[in-house]
Write a structure and sequence with these properties.
single chain, alpha/beta, Arc Repressor Mutant, subunit A, D-Maltodextrin-Binding Protein, domain 2, seven-stranded mixed beta sheet, 11 helices, elongated
């Protein structure tokens, strides 16, 4: 790591640059204007460049100061955010979980009452997205991801395999002839993922090679695929674990055909450094029990 400049000098520089006033920076930092000026001068001496130009009792950023400010402002913001996350996590018992919108809405959120009953002292904070979380920068404790489970430098434990099942809304199923053979679904309206590949792969798993060009709406989000199926826009292929609650509640009906095992599975992912924290252990125990 390269040598760092005086951190108090960086705070004084950022505040003075924001206010374009030593007094304004002093009021914010609860010190005297002279103290701010001395801290900035010490930083300038350390860097060997002038950061401010002084004229007519006003201060202006030099070209070097303008170049330096964005990086310092961003670094101080990241330090502040990281400190907030660490303090909040330690003081409030917050467990930050990163997952996808699809898994959060289709599996995790409907089961939060169970988690809260099991672990009443832990409050979940959900971050959703498709890229793997930065456990240091984002303050994430654990992540749930859909993939092959190969995440360098992280512990990865499989929660459940994914089997895609053909489902439809009851309103759609009542309007169409009841399918008795997977081939019958070739005549049904279908909802697709963005690549329009899932149905072809599902039909092949049923021993049907000739399917024709896929027709029907396609969505770039698995969450939207599920919403379209629930709205009766067509039959869809949904992971059995995600569809389970809607099937049990009667919001979906399962159609004919064998479940198709996808290559990917859902994994619980976390760094070794967080593996012994009580709240991480509690969440791991709960989710493993509920995925079995």
């Amino acid at each position: 790591m390269r040598p760092l400049p005086p951190l108090n000098g960086l705070r004084a520089f950022e505040a003075a640059a924001r206010h374009l006033s030593m007094k304004g920076a002093a009021d914010e930092l609860c010190v005297t204007p002279g103290a701010v000026s001395q801290l900035v001068k010490a930083l300038e001496a350390h860097l060997g460049v002038a950061l401010f130009r002084r004229a007519n009792r006003m201060i202006y950023l030099t070209e070097a100061g303008q170049d330096y400010l964005p990086a310092i402002r961003n670094a101080l913001r990241q330090i502040g955010d990281a400190t907030y996350n660490v303090r909040g996590s330690a003081e409030t018992g917050i467990l930050t979980v990163s997952t996808t919108d699809y898994f959060a809405s289709g599996w995790l959120v409907p089961r939060l009452n169970s988690f809260q009953r099991t672990c009443p002292g832990i409050d979940l904070q959900l971050h959703t997205g498709h890229s793997l979380a930065d456990f240091t920068r984002d303050g994430v404790d654990v992540a749930i991801r859909h993939g092959l489970g190969r995440y360098a430098g992280l512990i990865s434990e499989r929660l459940f395999a994914v089997e895609m099942v053909a489902v439809a809304a009851p309103s759609l199923a009542q309007r169409l002839p009841t399918p008795t053979d997977p081939r019958d679904l070739l005549d049904w309206p279908q909802v697709h993922d963005a690549d329009r590949k899932d149905w072809n792969l599902w039909f092949r798993a049923q021993g049907i090679e000739e399917t024709g060009a896929p027709r029907g709406p396609a969505f770039g989000s698995a969450t939207l695929v599920l919403q379209a199926v629930l709205a009766g826009q067509g039959a869809g292929l949904i992971p059995d674990a995600i569809a389970k609650r809607d099937l049990e509640a009667g919001r979906l009906v399962q159609l004919v055909g064998k479940p198709w095992p996808a290559d990917f599975a859902y994994y619980l992912v976390y760094p070794e450094a967080k593996s012994r924290r009580p709240k991480v252990l509690a969440f791991r125990e709960w989710i493993m029990a509920n995925c079995s």
